[in-house]
Amino acid sequence: KMRWERLGRAIAATPAPLAVTLTALVRMDDSRFADWMTSATRSDDQDIRWAATVALEELQAPVTEAMTRAYLRLAKDRNDFVRAAVARGLGRLEPQDEVFNFLRLLSKDRDPKVRFEAVRSLGELADAEHTAALEEAVGDENPLIRAEAERAIRSLVEDIADPLPTRDPSPSAAPLDAAPLRFEFNELPYISRTIARRLI
Q1: DSSP assignment of 8-57
Q2: In angstroms, rounded to a whole number, what is the distance separating the alpha carbons of residues 144 and 116?
Q3: pLDDT in tens, 102-111
Q4: Quick one: CA dihedral 67, 72, 73, 78, positive or negative?
Q5: What is the DSSP letter of 77?
Q6: Residues 185-200: pLDDT tens digits?
Q7: Measuring CA to CA, how many Å separate 101 from each of 39, 130, 145, 163?
Q8: pTM score, whole prediction
Q9: Is the pLDDT of residue 114 over 90?
């Protein structure tokens, strides 16, 4: 926590669990270990694969060919948290077809956190010609993913030729640019009993 970067090599050599060591190196903001972290993504321990992927993303380490290969390999990882971390990390890679293809697959993942991170990365990488996956995500069952897809599309395209799918009006379907809802204190008990589960 004191960011003593000179102790980085000593920390990397300790017998502490790798997931803990990776977290410590991130706190120290020590990107000298990016290659070492990249190699840790090959671990057979899912916690280490996750910690290494998160460490590379939080450090914002320079993207290398080895890191790109690691991200693309881990996009098929069996662990949901690893795939979510990879989906976020893919947003820093060069916007090439292979990256877009993996993000499209992840945007349809069974796990909502993976889909959310994939949609956010698509929004960071895509241009006006690459909105198909984002437009599909507008119909996602998860309201956070729908909102992120809509936000990404709005930032990419001023006028969308095909209108976004309509949804039943509800608190979660309010326009993103609308003024935030304000509630009186005496309304809160009613909200908590009725529509709280639909509020974001």
Answers
A1: HHHHHTSSS-HHHHHHHHHHTT-GGGHHHHHHHTT-S-HHHHHHHHHHHH
A2: 7
A3: 888 899 999 9
A4: positive
A5: -
A6: 666 666 655 555 555 4
A7: 24, 11, 19, 24
A8: 0.67
A9: yes
